[in-house]
Structure formats: structure tokens, C-alpha cells
Amino acid sequence: MKAKDLMTKDVLMMDKDDRLQEAIDVMAKHRVSKLVVVDKGQVVGVLTDGDIADELGALKTRGIPASHLHVSSAMRKKFATATPDTPVEKLLEILLEGDIGLVPVLHEKECLGVVTGSDVLTLVTSTKPLADVMTNHLHVVAPTDRIIHARRMMLDHHVDRLPVLDSGKLVGILGELDIAIGFAKLKTTVADKHQAAALQRFLVSDAMQPTLVTATPETTAREAVVLMRKEDVGSLPVLRGDRIVGIVTRSDLLKLLAQVA
What we know:
Structural class: alpha+beta
Shape: flat
CATH class of the largest domain: Alpha Beta
């Protein structure tokens, strides 16, 4: 199996000189977290929701709305690429070693498509239960926690989604795209002089996704992949009854695939 057999050919692209707000709007509309960045038709970067969140949350951009920033201000200039004939084993290695989650597939500088973690997950056939795959050391936040606290937790623990618990009950999921959209809205609707104070009052409950797609410890890895792709989500909280006991992400499932690749 090679990149050309797995890649998504309908690639969402932004020009490096496009406004960052335009990129956020595209991500929100299509519920994607990564975009290919081009300059004069050639791929020059990759933009992720986490990069946007960090750019909008940085001191250097305080008071500057996303509509006044360019995509180039937040994009990754260093990224791995593949050719149509790159084998799946190499793609897995790139996806697991990096934190971008997207590999542009190039032929003579032309972008033919991209391979994402979701694309590769179609190869998972394991019937191993999520109890044996999930991460059970959870990093969680409460609805009343501040977004800046949640973002710091994500960065410190290298996670891109946090379960939101209220009195021990799962009530939502907070992802990097939710934070990026929230920061952009805050900068657009709050006057410059009030943004620092507004940021302190910006809570997890203001940005989290309350609609949940969950699994059980008995759900198999293959069933989890089908559910994640059907619902277009990057993680599944794992519940035993109404209590969260773990979370499974695309990375967890890719690691499982890598063990048998």
C-alpha cells in the first residue's frame, strides 16, 4: 500500500498571504484541523489549528485580530512530504514521529493530495478492545477552567483534545480548533484595551464541543475507526457506564497499526 492508494485528492489549500481569519473559517466550515499552504502554486507550509491558537494567544499579537494576520505568520515551514509511491510504513513513521498529522503528497512540486491520520486508519482491522488501546492516564479540565489554563495543559502534555468533566461527568470535549476559533472571536468582538481581561474570563465552557461521540472499553479498534470516520472526530472518550475511563485518539490507533505493519 502506497501514498497514492490512501491519499485524499481534494486538498484544502490556503495562500500564504491569505488572512488567518479566512483559514479559520475554512477549518470551521469543513471541520478540519490542518491546511496546506501554497505560494505561487507550490507547497510552502502546513497550517494547524494548534499553530493558530498559539499565534492568536501570543503576546506579540495581542490586540491584533486574525483578519489582520497572514497565514504565513502561523504556518509550519518545516514539514515532511511524500511521493505517490511512498510506502505506508514510511507514512506511519512520519505521522507518529511528528505532530502535524498531515503529509502532502508531491510530484515535481505539484500537490497531488494529502495523507492524514484518518486516511491511514482505514487500514486498521484489529478486533482488540479499546481497553487495551486507550490512554487511561487522562488530562481533563472543568467547564469553569480558563482557556489559557487548558491550552497550557495541552502544550505541557502534548495532547490536542481534553475531556471536559463537571462533577466527574463528561460534558464536552475541548480541541485546539475550538480554542483557535474562540481566540479569533474574542479578538474580533472585544476592544484591544479589554482583551487581556476578557482572556482571563474566557472559560472552557465558552469554547468546548458539548456534543459527544463515545465508545466503551469493549468497542474494538476497527469499530472505533469506523465510528471516528463516520462522525468525523479525532478522538473517542471511553465510558464505562457514565464514567470516563480513558480516551482513544487517532495516534493510539496508528500505533496499533504500526505494531503489525
